[in-house]
Amino acid sequence: MEHRHHHLQNHPVSANVEAAGGADRFPQWSLQETKEFLSIRAERDQSFMETKRNKQLWEVISTRMRDKGYNRSAEQCKCKWKNLVTRYKGCGSIEAEAARQQFPFYDDLQAIFTARMQSIICSESEGGGGGGATRKMSAASDEEEDMEENELDNKYSVRKKKKVKTGGTSTSGGNNDIKEMLEDFMRQQLQIEMRWREAFESRENERRSKEMEWRQTMEALENERMMMERRWREREEQRRVREEARAEKRDALITVLLNKLRREGQM
Description:
- The protein is mainly α.
- Among the domains are: 31-103, Orthogonal Bundle (Arc Repressor Mutant, subunit A); 178-266.
- 85% of the residues lie in helices and 0% in strands.
- It contains 10 helices and no strands.
- Helix 9 (154-167) packs across helix 10.
- The longest helix is centred in the C-terminal third of the chain and has 96 residues, at 171-266.
- The protein starts with a helix and ends with a helix.
């Protein structure tokens, strides 16, 4: 019994070590697996924003992944999220269309962060810019500080840390920082939308031009077909007239011959 109890105590430690140190032995994340992971992470994003202790949340995500048939530890899910955020931030200096081609999960991350910022805006407007939004930004800061430890986004994390440190003593300054960040985010969204609209209009104009060219070509072919059909009908009509004239001459000649033979027989 003592040996069994000792084994049960040591087993979680060894499991954690294996999960943390043996990530390389696990297969790479597939496209579908990553999509499922981002879907689960998006459902829990609000919880990540409201708490600083997110270890249990990653355990929940690991359990949800296991339910879907993917054996991923909490540490692996956390590292995967950091890598995806890093790649998403690396696409900030290029156009959205190019970013989608370079990073297949760009739209998924964009949706998560857009929903996050909208949630912060709603909390800011409903709570008057006080405690609710500050707590959420503090949670977001905790997540960004954790990214800083892995050298994913140093500049962004330092700025977030400064906001948390000064939040208790200067609420108005923190609110101004939040507003500036929200304004920057909305400007980026507007720029992305404008580039998308320009690209869409360009493709639409090109499509309309090709469609007009195709219609003109088809109309020309149809006109040519109608002209050829009209010529054919005219030739058929001329042939019919000639045939009728030839038949009339033949009938007249036969009539003349019959009459001649009849007269000769009478003589």
